[in-house]
Write a structure and sequence with these properties.
The chain has 618 residues and is α/β, with parallel strands linked by helices. Helix content is 24%, strand content 19%. Helix 3 packs parallel to helix 15 and helix 9 packs parallel to helix 11.
Length: 618
């Protein structure tokens, strides 16, 4: 069923305010600021004064939600289109595409935070792998000035179908790849403007911030300041003055890699849970993102644009400290050159499933080399079966959750795989493709909006990993710890799980079309961001899929304040070993918001026997 991108959920089909255009007879500007991986409760007037000011003087979305799997590209697709992942097909940062991607290193499981890889995937999926229009494309088509600046991958995704080499108006895209062979080409106008502003035409590298370390060497202890200072300077000294001179409304997306990049790579806590992602490097990265926002807001003031510009701030996801501990995993009982004794190696899920299913394991990131003995897949991904070019099962490794694909849609293999997963203490919740039937202990993909009109292949099973709260002395969501399938080490940072620590992202808004000093308890999600942005800009688009967010009417002056309800969903039947996947849900009309999910006792945010599991997993 085709729906307009600005249609609301049932019960919210009319906004008493109308469009921002109709309200004021003046087209507004919009800035979408994304502080990647910012936990909502880490923002205070001391840690992040600029973001705290927006939250406290504008709208404070206290009940915010990242979409699961809680990864960057997945949630970026929701923000940019207003659709859930079942429609966009961006199920995580690494997906199975069912063809070999050259730009990704000749693999069928590309890591898609890469402009060249996104272009390649577009080509293989009829020119638009998202299968939905983005807000930036719609704004550009309507004649607005558009730009996306920041972290490579999600930045380009906001207008990935634009073709700069063709005549017409184009979005400005500046990311890590700008100036390189994989970067989006700069127009002559941008080159001249950058040169006049004494800014280079090539984005600086992350420097030491990009160093993740290894099992014996701590990662970075500095924030991504130099690279993000460049992005902020491009936004404030080049793009915003250029947009003002054009004298027409604009949309600017600014995707701050910090705090995400530093929280991932930080070297404050090598192989130790404490302090994890609450150490000095992580705190510096939060302040770094905040400084970028402050610079942008000052530029709006200086250019006389503030009064007519709406600002929406939304992190793509929360964050957790990595655990590499398991008492049941066969992979943790082996020894590896690059992994501390008794810790889970990268690719533990692929190794454990290959053993449980008695299937050969091959590495899709190493020319399908067979994995045996004390080896693990180079990037964690695995293809299982006698013929790696025609696999029975594919594992796309991502972090706090992994994706499993069954190319042959084999129901018996699905049941065997689920049974094997249910034996592992690091698993907490399983979601299975509806077409494979209801398997005891699991919930269907449709229950979390992962079954829709996606152009890319839909996973057969999504595996959520165990999470709990450490004794970090702060709110449980700030102390979230999760088992993660990643090259990063215990004590470093990751996301992707169904922990409330990962689903609770920072969200706030301020501007002429938002309420002032308003605290909202109504649940909102990153899919609502895309819908609300379209509403503010007066944009409409026919969507291919029907899994859409809603306009956050409660945040708009005189807007409808809907009622919200809570519910709990469970597996239709428990597994043989007594496990069931439980999903905590909130509802606004027909809209569903997902707080946390998994096996009670193994997911932060799920209660066990009436008590909050602060110490779950100890």
């Amino acid at each position: 069923m085709r729906r307009s991108l600005v249609l609301l959920s049932a019960g919210l089909t009319v906004l008493s305010t109308g469009f921002a255009f109709a309200q004021n007879n003046t087209p507004r500007n919009l800035i979408l600021f994304i502080p990647d991986g910012l936990r909502a409760l880490k923002v205070t007037p001391e840690t992040a004064p600029a973001m705290a000011e927006v939250r406290d003087k504008g709208v404070n979305f206290k009940n915010s939600h990242s979409l699961f799997p809680t990864f960057t590209m997945a949630n970026g697709s929701a923000m940019s289109t207003g659709h859930y992942l079942g429609d966009t097909g961006v199920f995580s940062n690494t997906i199975w595409t069912n063809y070999t991607s050259g730009p990704a290193g000749d693999t069928v499981v590309p890591f898609i935070e890469n402009d060249a890889v996104l272009g390649d995937i577009d080509e293989h999926f009829k020119g638009d792998y998202l299968n939905e229009e983005t807000v930036l494309k719609m704004a550009r088509d309507k004649g607005l000035s558009t730009a996306a600046i920041g972290k490579v991958g999600p930045t380009y995704q906001w207008d990935h179908t634009d073709k700069p080499e063709k005549p017409g108006q184009h979005s400005i895209v500046i990311d890590d790849s700008t100036g390189g062979k994989n970067g989006v080409a700069l127009s002559d106008e941008m080159k001249d403007a950058l040169t006049k502003a004494n800014l280079p035409l090539t984005t600086p590298s992350r420097g030491d911030n990009g160093k993740a370390g290894d099992a014996k060497t701590p990662g970075t202890t500095v924030a991504n300041t130099a690279q993000q200072a460049y992005f902020a300077d491009v936004a404030t000294k080049v793009v915003l003055p250029m947009f003002k001179a054009r004298n027409k409304p604009f949309v600017l997306v600014f995707w701050s890699r910090d705090p995400d990049g530093t929280q991932h790579n930080q070297g404050d806590s090598l192989n130790q849970i404490m302090p994890g992602i609450n150490g000095p490097s992580s705190m510096a990265s939060i302040k770094n993102a905040d400084n970028n926002l402050a610079q942008i807001r000052k530029a709006l003031d200086d250019l006389g644009l503030a009064a007519n510009t709406n600002i929406m701030i939304q992190a793509d996801h929360g964050f957790s400290t990595i655990s590499k501990e398991s008492k049941t995993s066969p992979s943790a009982k082996l020894s590896y050159d690059d992994t501390p004794k008794d810790f889970l190696p990268m690719g533990f899920l692929a190794i454990d499933l290959a053993k449980a299913l008695d299937l050969p394991l091959f590495d899709p990131n190493d020319k399908n080399a067979q994995i045996d003995g004390n080896k693990h897949p180079k990037a964690g991904n695995g293809v299982l079966g006698k013929d790696p070019t025609k696999p029975d099962l594919v594992i796309a490794t991502n972090g706090g959750s992994d994706l499993i694909y069954l190319p042959n849609k084999d129901k018996k293999l699905a049941a065997k795989t689920v049974k094997a997963l249910l034996e592992q203490d690091y698993v907490s919740g399983l979601f299975v493709d509806d077409q494979l039937g209801r398997i005891p202990g699991t919930l269907p993909l449709s229950s979390i909006n992962l079954r829709g009109k996606a152009a890319t292949p839909t996973p057969a099973i999504v595996v959520n990993f165990r999470s709990y709260a450490s004794d970090c002395g702060e709110a449980p969501t700030n102390c979230s710890v999760q088992v993660a399938d990643t090259v990063l080490r215990q004590g470093q940072g990751m996301h992707g799980s169904f922990s409330r620590g990962d689903t609770m992202n920072f969200m706030a808004a301020i501007g002429p079309d938002f309420k002032a000093g308003y605290v909202s308890e109504i649940p909102v999600s990153n899919a609502d961001v895309g819908m609300t942005a379209a509403q503010l800009l007066g944009l409409r688009s026919s969507g291919n899929g029907g899994l859409v967010g809603r306009v956050m009417s409660e945040a708009l002056p005189n807007g409808i304040v809907p009622k919200a309800y809570k519910s709990v969903e469970r597996s239709k039947k428990k597994s043989e070993n007594g496990l069931e996947t439980v999903l905590n849900v909130q509802r606004v009309g027909s809209q569903r918001y997902f707080d946390a999910a998994g096996f009670p006792g193994r997911t932060l945010g799920l209660e066990v026997d009436g008590a909050k599991q602060k110490t779950a997993g100890k």
